[in-house]
Design brief:
This protein has about 190 residues and is mainly beta. Helix content is about 0%, strand content about 60%.
């Protein structure tokens, strides 16, 4: 299925509803999936997709012969919010030290990737606050090598980690063992 986005770039909700719908994928110009929403309660959704004007393509998977596609504009993005799709290293978003980003992980399959750089060896704090109904995971890598992983012990628990980190480029992956439509807050602070 394809649709055309006009006007200014903005966020979109893509919702496919029907019995037998398994998933919906946002497809890029090469025909590759760049975001996937798996069905829950008869509906597969892609939240907060940042789409530029032009033709867009989605692929619906499942056994449904009849389903409904609803594509809803959500308006311009919050400058401090994550932009979907950002579920891979190559679509990760930069976050500067002391900058506060917010985002959401609305399904277990969704992950948010961020990247940051340290020019010098530094002592930093990474703080991920969670909405009351969300339970998050956080994985930190340095130049492609895993450093540490955290799992919140229960919903609503913030993940905080203080460490001395070497100069270099870092990737931070946020996921959810219990997802939420509410937003998290992420900050990386030099100490």
């Amino acid at each position: 299925y394809h649709f055309t986005v006009t006007g200014e770039p903005q966020l979109w909700l893509i919702d496919v509803t029907g019995p037998g719908v398994d998933s919906v994928d946002l497809i890029d110009a090469t025909g590759s999936s760049i975001a996937t929403g798996h069905a829950e309660d008869g509906s597969a959704r892609l939240y907060d997709m940042f789409l530029l004007p032009g033709d867009q393509h989605i692929l619906v998977a499942g056994t449904a012969d009849l389903y409904q596609i609803t594509i809803t504009p959500l308006g311009p993005p919050d400058p401090l919010a994550e932009l979907e799709p950002n579920n891979r290293i190559d679509t990760s978003q930069a976050i500067r030290l002391t900058e506060i980003r917010n985002g959401r992980v609305p399904s277990i399959e969704d992950t948010d990737f961020y990247r940051f750089s340290l020019q010098n060896d530094s002592y930093v704090r990474i703080n991920l606050s969670a909405p009351d109904d969300a339970q998050y995971t956080m994985n930190l890598s340095w130049q492609g090598r895993g450093i540490t992983s955290f799992n919140a012990p229960e919903a609503g628990t913030a993940l905080t980690w203080d460490a001395w980190l070497a100069a270099g480029d870092y990737e931070l992956q946020i996921g959810a063992s219990v997802p939420s439509l509410d937003r998290y807050s992420l900050e990386i602070t030099p100490l």
